[in-house]
Amino acid sequence: MNDVILAAENLTKEFKGFVAVDGVNLRVRRGQIHALIGPNGAGKTTCFNLLTKFLSPTRGTITYGGKDITAMSSADIARLGLVRSFQISAVFPHLTALENVRIALQRRRGDSFDFWRSQKILSRFDEEALSLLAEVGLSEFANTSASELSYGRKRALEIATTLALNPEMLLLDEPMAGMAQADVERITALIQRISANRTILMVEHNLSVVATLSNTITVLARGKVLAEGDYATVSQDPRVVEAYIGAGHG
User: Fold this and answer.
1) Which domain holds residue 4?
2) Rounded CA gap, 20 and 11, in Å?
């Protein structure tokens, strides 16, 4: 069990009699990219919100690094190194890419968001911020305001602000949603790169991205785990094929 970084046991969420997540058991292994997929209405978003503590489970337990985090807040688990991307960031549109990452670095170090601080105090974060922008391929956009970045590059900036918090594990909520193909390819390559020394759990609709990136895939249907394994295994499972076709979702 030492290689399991995030685990859910009998995870259940009921909404006024409707069971959205029904007794899910999940094991995410350290250093892997693990995808949570399923047809529309499968419960994957609810499951993801439970794991990231945006919802509280009706029943079940969640452990991270062997520690029970079931009753902890999303802010508290972020401090443990479990960070949901696109949760923290929602980048500041009128600040530059560099300024956005700098603010995230301030947050990690416990500094308050004193926008009126002297440039000299703030600039001590520049070197690390520029290094993070380089990691996500945004070096040439350091002084571009976030509002002027393309959608895919905004996503890359959001990932940079998340990486500024130095997470051990990254939870990505549909990182490819709404992207043009060129951006999908860029962000897929970025996720591959940043996974080198981190664990990643992602919910993603784009199955070709899932096939490219994932070590392990958990398929949900009607709130339950339907299948689990690598892409070759789950994509050939007749129950998975039936769940997707039956839901009218390719």
Assistant:
1) 1-87+168-250
2) 10
Q: Helix, strand or coil for residue 84?
A: strand
> pLDDT by residue (tens digit) across 181-234?
888 999 999 999 999 889 999 999 899 999 999 999 999 999 999 999 999 999
> Do residues 73 and 51 share a domain?
yes
> Please, what is the Cα angle at 176 between 145 and 41, to 5 degrees?
130
d(CA 84, CA 79): 11
Number of domains in the chain: 2
Q: What digits encode the pLDDT tens for the residues 101-112?
A: 998 888 776 655
- Residue length, the chain? 250
With a CB cutoff of 8 Å and minimum separation 6, the contacts of 177 are 205
Residue 197: other Cβ atoms inside 10 A: 7
Q: What angle do CA 216, 166, 161 make, to 5 degrees?
A: 95
Q: Report pTM.
A: 0.88
Q: What's the token pair of residue 26?
A: 């999940």
